Amino acid sequence: MLQIKGLEVKLEEEDKQILKGVDLEVPAGAVHAIMGPNGSGKSTLSYVLSGRDGYEVTGGSATLEGVDLLDMEPEERAAAGLFLAFQYPVEIPGVGNMTFLRTALNAQRKARGQEEISAADFLKLIREKAKDLQIDAEMLKRPVNVGFSGGEKKRNEILQMAVLEPKMCVLDETDSGLDVDAMKLVSDGVNALRDAGRGFLVITHYQRLLNHIQPDVVHIMSDGRIVKSGGPELALEVEENGYADILNEVA
Amino acid sequence: MARADLIARRQEAAATRAETMTLPEGAAWATEAREAARARLLKMGLPTRRDEYWKWTNPESLIAAEAPTAAVFDADEAPIFDEIDRLRIVFTDGVFDAEASDPLEMAGIEIARLSDAARADIHWARDLYGTLEARGHASVERPFAAFNTAYATDGVVIRVTGTAARPVNLVYRHASDGSDVILHHLVKVEEGAELTLLETGPAAARFSGGLEVEVADGATFRHVRTQGRDHERREVTGVFARLGTESTFQSFTLTANGKLTRNEVVIELTGDDAVAHVAGAALGDGKDFHHDDTVFITHDAVNCESRQVFKKVLRNGATGIFQGKILVKQGAQKTDGYQISQSLLLDDDAQFLAKPELEIYADDVACSHGSTSGAIDEDALFYLRSRGVPHREATNLLTLAFVAEALEEIDDEALAEALRDRLAGWLERHSS
Lengths: 251, 432
What we know:
The structure holds two protein chains of two kinds.
Chain A: E1 2-11, E2 17-26, E3 31-35, H1 42-50, E4 55-64, E5 67-68, H2 74-80, E6 82-85, E7 92-96, H3 97-111, H4 119-132, H5 137-141, E8 143-144, H6 150-164, E9 168-172, H7 180-193, E10 199-204, H8 208-212, E11 217-222, E12 225-230, H9 233-250
Parallel strand pairs in A: 3-10, 3-11, 6-9, 9-10
Antiparallel strand pairs in A: 1-2, 1-4, 4-5, 7-8, 11-12
Helix pairs in contact in A: 2-3, 6-7
Chain B: H1 3-19, H2 28-44, H3 60-63, E1 87-92, E2 95-96, E3 105-106, E4 109-113, H4 114-117, H5 123-128, H6 131-135, H7 143-151, E5 156-160, E6 168-173, E7 180-189, E8 194-200, E9 206-215, E10 220-226, E11 234-243, E12 248-256, E13 260-269, E14 275-285, E15 290-299, E16 305-315, E17 319-328, E18 336-345, E19 351-360, E20 366-374, H8 378-386, H9 391-407, H10 413-429
Parallel strand pairs in B: 1-6, 5-7, 6-8, 7-9, 8-10, 9-11, 10-12, 11-13, 12-14, 13-15, 14-16, 15-17, 16-18, 17-19, 18-20
Antiparallel strand pairs in B: 1-2, 3-4, 4-5
Helix pairs in contact in B: 1-2, 2-7, 8-9, 9-10
């Protein structure tokens, strides 16, 4: 599904190398987690995959089902099936949440040569998905993320994921700012989307999210590289001993 | 140049201009009011760019004896508010078009053409004509408004005694390249009465518009106008309103295109607990777009509220101006005054100039103002694109969102929706 080979990235503004050769492959149906200390390059990886400005790819490749992601505009990546759940979802005053979702869904459908969804069908779809995430009509009407609590913002990210049905989901620190109940709700939303045809890359600093979203593979990232990969037990090791032990071991 | 010389030069310009004009005929009272307006004009003179409130807008083309021509724009779409049940009064190049207009009859209101009213003796019209305009010069001179009162050839006079069941729509049609039109309207909304007035379309190649509105105690006046899309159109308008106790005044203007638009709104809150909301959205694409909102709100009563919300979307060298003032007189305690003017500059060539002013002589008031100029929010743009919305569509969505705050000032959702459609259409045509 997602294949990253030797990916090297530096900041456009300053001459600072952030990713120094990332190799990673997430097959369809699998959930991979990336853990790592702050500043290891986890979020940069998610931004580069989704096409955010400000980064320069100096080497390597990233493909989704064999298609070069790095050559595409952000909207083309989305239409190709990539979804990034933001660590800090953006507030957009003046744009209603429903309008936003419907515009996004129809834009993707149009880009894929599919027919636009009717207003009635969309309403039905959104009500059903929103219900599972305990998102009420009021939240759907409000401007995108404006005045939402941290938990509401993250639930809104998962709602978008559920409606857009991407092939590859990248979750950037989705657990940050969540209390236990919200984490459970968000995780249930993610788990409901687990599917043989869909890949997940879950980026997190802490192991606790992985109690709820059970990964198949855990990668440890440090200083712009994947330094260690293993099963779910790797996350527990981090939880118990911190990153220092692992990093010393691979150094 | 010495101040006396400047005044002399302004007065000379006014005298020269007045010589090319003839006062329309009418009853003695009308002639008297027009002569008084002409006298005001001759005393004030016509502005130059040295005038405080004209330094950003060049008045020359508004002063010239001959109106610069403007090609008639074929919008190729149904007139705005076509879906809304309304009483239409049509002026083609400033000439009343009886065929195209609806009968001037509606329960609860009296409507007449100004040209008829000025020949008759309608006491309320006599009392109002030129009165609010004349009061409007108290702090800042507005020579074009005096010019309008003196020389307006037609218009409508409306007196509302009940609740008007449907809006009155002044429909302006621009039919010839060289039309030079002066219209003046009077509206008196009597105690507890309600009216919505719509003004739509480009009136002429050059248009001078005057509107005096007396809103009596407990009355409501709503005003929504769209100024047409003719690119070379020039227009100077003056809205003068006086508000009684617990009355409401709301005005919204959508301007798209136009070589020069100067919209002045002058409001006096003279009764306690009155509310005045003035808002506008202007859309300009290209160096030939110049749009100027000049607003002056005077609080002269207790516990009144005023809001000014102006948004401008500018690209390719378009220019937007905002000059807005809140004057709170001594004794106008508990005033709640708010003013915001914002521009969205879609490229580096566009410019927005703003002059927000507060002048406050009461000590128990809450007044705030703000003005911003900015580009599209890059984070929001990326967020939308990351969800699959293409760059152009995302930009338009964010632009509409920017303007939305001004549209929210309109109570009537059907009117707001019609304006939103026009806005979206314009953005669709003017985005790349």
